[in-house]
Amino acid sequence: MSGQVYGRVALIGLGLIASSMFWAMKRAGLAGEVTGYARSAETRATARRIGLCDRVCDSAREAVQDADLVVLCVPVGAMGPVMEDIAPVLKTGATVSDVGSVKRHVIEAVQPHLPEGVHFVPAHPLAGTEHSGPESGFAELFDNRWSLLVPVEGTDPEATARLRALWEGMGANVDEMDADHHDLVLAVTSHTPHLIAYTMVGVADDLRRVTDSEVIKYSAAGFRDFTRIAASDPTMWRDVFLTNKDATLEILGRFTEELFALQRAIRTGDGAHLHDYFTRTRAIRRSIIEAGQDTDAPDFGRGQKK
Amino acid sequence: MSGQVYGRVALIGLGLIASSMFWAMKRAGLAGEVTGYARSAETRATARRIGLCDRVCDSAREAVQDADLVVLCVPVGAMGPVMEDIAPVLKTGATVSDVGSVKRHVIEAVQPHLPEGVHFVPAHPLAGTEHSGPESGFAELFDNRWSLLVPVEGTDPEATARLRALWEGMGANVDEMDADHHDLVLAVTSHTPHLIAYTMVGVADDLRRVTDSEVIKYSAAGFRDFTRIAASDPTMWRDVFLTNKDATLEILGRFTEELFALQRAIRTGDGAHLHDYFTRTRAIRRSIIEAGQDTDAPDFGRGQKK
């Protein structure tokens, strides 16, 4: 889990994921030097103040100079323009990767700008918190979480293997997946649930008959977990929905179909339908705990989140 | 936070809430003797084995004999029949209460059976976990959580004050609220979010193109929290939706209206609408943290739940 994997790594964009990558790389000594760049001068100043990156640069081009690995950690919608900007100065033999939540769109936006002799290995770490910005990162973010590599046709297996070693060194479990399948799986496990949580929190905020203070004061089980999800970075999520449009709309269609069936069961008083449905979903939870993706501690609705 | 409030308390139904009440009452010495009854012989045997209740009885009538406080801890749909059964043997001057998640229906089901000289003070502790059964309770469940008292017309203020003292002694903050308002607030903060989580987990389970194992394996941020919510007790939740039908259907109508607006924004690529919406919901999360209803720790999507 340690030993240098890349001589120089450049992080473009210095939010939650990039800052966690920096601390995770430092923890295991995975990179010789890590440079960083953020579009906002304020973010760059914060990064310098807290020692995030060995060197914070004032342009993306400066940051990627001589880098063996360049990781695009910007919102999905900004990946293309950033790649276009840095392409002319990339070192031959370098690898470009990213951490975007959507993969087909990132590949289509980045690949046309890829110079001859530069490898491209898209990636997506399935880890995050509802916080964002350069100060939100921590070395343990990827520990025992999945990081999915989505190599494109013609990607050098050696470049993929090296990036895998980096992610494993940062504590992650690594799998490889096709881009379209990735986008569908994530639409189910992450994108649609986020949209639904955002919607429910918005509805609560709109209701005039239930005052804000009551919704907040009594936000125990259920709603409170939704607000946590719905506190995630707005720019990142806007881009996710706009760039994984087809899969999200497909899953949303399935969701409303099922919701209407449950709504009809409530209206008609069909208790058996409801009970069967809720029994089935309870079993899925057990599978997730058995798969080691969450603990069985009864913290739901409790203040035990440390 | 201590001192005896009732001489004898009877708990009817021995699930998560009743068992937590028992341990919380013991912790603070709030009751002289606590009797208990559960319909299932297996539950009664478990209760006897783990020392849940000072005395486990084989009938509800036996358990409520000479009780100063009887708390109905059964699913909302079972409240009426249980009350009808125990009514003839209730002590004059006793108080009947409950812990149901819906209040208007419980009042309508229980009140007709209330004998002369017996007080009725409905209550609802906003606390729980996704676990159920007699072994799932713990003394701290209500600490710093809200318990809502919903006194009906003509309830003796003295009986209400005494029940308030019990809940405060068990660690809860107590508020009073009108039954219809309670049911609407809970439809927003708890009932509809639960239905939505159940639906989303069911959709994921149905999808044949995304194998079960993938949904489970990669269930990081978002979906995993939904599965926790969707693992709650099926019988309890069936009864909640059947008995808080009007408020749930009203909030569901609002929800689908908003969801369709966001769906249209995704389809038409209206990024500004999405970004504005997500920025607004993020602010609500901050209010909840400031109100002390959750911590700001970045555990979302992480395995840090203890």
TrEMBL record, chains A, B:
PROSITE patterns hit by this protein: PDH_ADH
Gene3D superfamilies xref list: 6-phosphogluconate dehydrogenase C-terminal like domain, NAD(P)-binding Rossmann-like Domain
Listed transmembrane segments: 6-25
Stored InterPro entries: 6-PGluconate_DH-like_C_sf (IPR008927), NAD(P)-bd_dom_sf (IPR036291), PDH_C (IPR046825), PDH_N (IPR046826), Preph/Arog_dehydrog (IPR050812), Prephen_DH (IPR003099)
Domain Prephenate/arogenate dehydrogenase: 7-296
Pfam family, one: PDH_C
Keyword terms: Membrane, Oxidoreductase, Transmembrane, Transmembrane helix
Designated name of the protein: Prephenate/arogenate dehydrogenase family protein
Biological source species: Leisingera daeponensis
Lineage of the species this protein comes from: Bacteria, Pseudomonadati, Pseudomonadota, Alphaproteobacteria, Rhodobacterales
